[in-house]
Amino acid sequence: MAAAKSGLSEALAEAYASAPADAVIFDTIEIRHPAFIDDDGKQTAIRVVIGYEEIEARLEDDAPMDAGRVVKFIPGAFRFSLPGFEAGSVPSMRISLDNASREVTSHLEQAIAQTARIEVTYRPYLASDLSAPQMDPPYTMTLTNVHADVFQVTGTATLSDVHNWPFPRRRYTPDDFPGLVR
Fold first, then answer.
1. Which of 24, 31, 33, 94 has the CB geometry, 3.0–4.6 Å to 111, for a possible disulfide?
2. Percent of the chain beyond pLDDT 90?
């Protein structure tokens, strides 16, 4: 997948710019927390796609969970606004998931009671290409201020500690580059 400068694939950037009738964009979110355990006792994630039908799509090869595997996204109604990157502010995205199932609400209520971070990943897909997300890398953020009730789950997703990310991003350490050791 060739990525445009924005991190979006060229196909997705074209779909956003020209909005052709045959280019259907699936917006998805994945919510992860150590407390999300399925019926088999394995860690799981909440995966939702905006729409009326579930989709099966392949995750990126370095995804935090189920890397490179085809997974199901359940249909749902959620709203979000992509984070802005203004100077002096932490990028954030408000997420609202309407009519959340009892299972989703239960998972989130367990997670809220714990100190581990709730992570959310936003991935756009094109209906014509579910082989990989159309954003490289997808946005992965920390979900805070979560409120869940029978009608809606809301929260704020932020890039955690973006101001303290190293620049350049890659660190040159003796573990990775033994020649640095004297």
1. 33
2. 22
